[in-house]
Amino acid sequence: MFPNEAEAEAALAALRRQREALDRQIADHALYLELGRRLGAGAPATPVAAAPARPPAEPAEMRPVEDVAAARRHGRALVAAALDILHEAGRPLHAGEILPGLTARGFDLPGHDPVAALNTRLWKRSGPGGPLRRLGDAVYAPSEEEADPA
Fold this sequence. Notes:
54% helix; 4 helices; mainly alpha; 3-stranded antiparallel sheet
């Protein structure tokens, strides 16, 4: 017996959701493989079962201090620019609305999903005492708005 139109549409929607979930998983695994190749450039491949659960920590004297400091400065500048965009808008914005303004100001967010990368950075700075307030899923406002009577 064949399904009716509503059943066929429901089954098709369920299959599309499954495909989207698989596409996300495939993209994640492709990213992990690429990161592994970049981090292990030239190192022979080891079987997954033989790989340690956690890579050994790099000694502090081997870490490039300049890169860490530069990354922190870049992160602070990105959050400051996002705050400027929020102040200019005069209302809370979704990370997807903030991203074009950051791109126009010369910021580039790497990764498969730049909005998700931006959301993560903003979320980390939206805690108590931070410059941002998280109002919903990827929706942010400056934290000082709460103190200002409008």
